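We close this part of the discussion by returning to an individual protein. The encoding preserves chain order, so positions in sequence and tokens coincide. The sequence in question and its structure tokens are set out directly beneath this paragraph:

===
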Amino acid sequence: MILIVDALNRHEFTDILDDMYRLRARVFGERLGWEVDIRDGKERDCFDDLDPAYIIGLDDDGRVISCVRALQTMGPHMLSDVFSDILDGQPPVRSPTIWEATRFCVDTDRLARGRGAGTIAHATCELSLGALEYAIESGITDVIAVVDPRMDRVLRMSGNGAYDYLGKTVDMGKVHALAGLLDCTEERLERVREMAGITGSVIVDEEEFRAARVRKASRAATLAQYFMDQIDAAQDSSELQAVLELADTVLGPVSARAVREAARADSAH
């Protein structure tokens, strides 16, 4: 599923944005070797301060598995201010209906190979569809996509390849960077849907998504309290270890660690 996060709702989804920044750090900093600013395991730049829109792919557990950033070209953007070498002397594109798409990535460590649900190919197509749906609904006619050659090939294979390119390909870390032009049309949308075998909108209903998050948080709080009670009731180290191992399995390492820390804090009082 695809969630759209922008200036209007970003305050509600800071945890998802943080997860997205961590994915970007792993992909662009570690895997591709791009010269990006990574702090506390998160990759952000000055363009993230310009209220862009984020098209974010989530798995069934609400974890970020893909993302792309959409930014207007009327003001500062990466092709005009960072990747200007790509333009090879050409003036940057400036239009209210042409936006820039950057930081397109999928979590290849978390996703499987293949074409079904939970795979890299499916996540890539779903992200492309989400970006196209958002663009068409927002009146965006074309997108400039700054990508590396491998992602350019992936986009073409998903039926979402560029119809033209700007400037030239330049070196960027371990790979190269190029700028392709993509038209945001119903024809392209239907082509990608057919290639992916996906019907209907991929963008999640925001109200339903909020309600699901509330229900999940409530269940997590109930489980966390249960394990805290079991930790308090443990009679010896073996019982305590069994509870902690079960908490790791049920809650996951991060939530289980929070339970252990809370239990230690209670015992200290």
